[in-house]
Design a protein that fits this description.
Blueprint (H helix, E strand, L loop, with lengths): L1 H4 L3 H14 L4 H13 L3 H14 L4 H13 L3 H14 L4 H13 L3 H19 L1 H22 L14
């Protein structure tokens, strides 16, 4: 919508409302109107629009992601995590869903899950954009983990494996 791009949000909302009036099952209009409401920080109206888009198309990943972002803005992190979980279930390769869910975990103080999701998000981005680089990164991560394991537990290293117990 050109009004949305020009940041004439009131006119954009009117355009989307007209589109919805003419075509009540217009998922794109509901989603885009939700985006405008989010930009205006009218979060309840944004959630209504995203929820309507989801009702009309239950597999609409974008609506789940958008609604999750709004829930996070409202500090409703559990609801945001639920929406991101659904997005991940629908598309396990969606790096944005992992990134968003990771940020929710961070806000809840679950730093382990935060790090896991952020790593997964970064790996998915690299894998999607640069497959050869992805292989190199995974190789380096594995080598780094092996080195850390050996340093952290010398009993499991091959050189000490046959050392008699005292």
């Amino acid at each position: 919508n050109s009004f949305q791009e020009l940041k004439e949000y009131d006119k954009a909302i009117l355009d989307y409302s007209k589109a919805i009036e003419l075509e009540p099952n217009n998922i794109i209009a509901y989603n885009n109107q939700g985006v405008v409401y989010k930009q205006l920080e009218k979060y309840d109206k944004a959630i209504f629009n995203y929820s309507k888009a989801i009702e009309l198309e239950p597999n609409n990943i974008i609506a789940y992601l958008n609604r999750g972002v709004v829930f996070a803005k409202q500090k409703k992190y559990d609801k945001s995590i639920q929406d991101n979980n659904i997005a991940i279930e629908l598309d396990p390769g969606n790096s944005m869903a992992y990134n968003n869910r990771g940020m929710d975990y961070y806000e809840l103080g679950d730093y382990q899950k935060f790090l896991q999701d952020q790593l997964k998000s970064k790996i998915l981005k690299i894998k999607a954009n640069k497959p050869i680089f992805f292989i190199l990164v995974i190789f380096l991560l594995v080598i780094t983990l092996l080195i850390k394991l050996r340093r952290g537990n010398p009993k499991n290293t091959p050189t000490n494996a046959n050392t008699p117990k005292q």
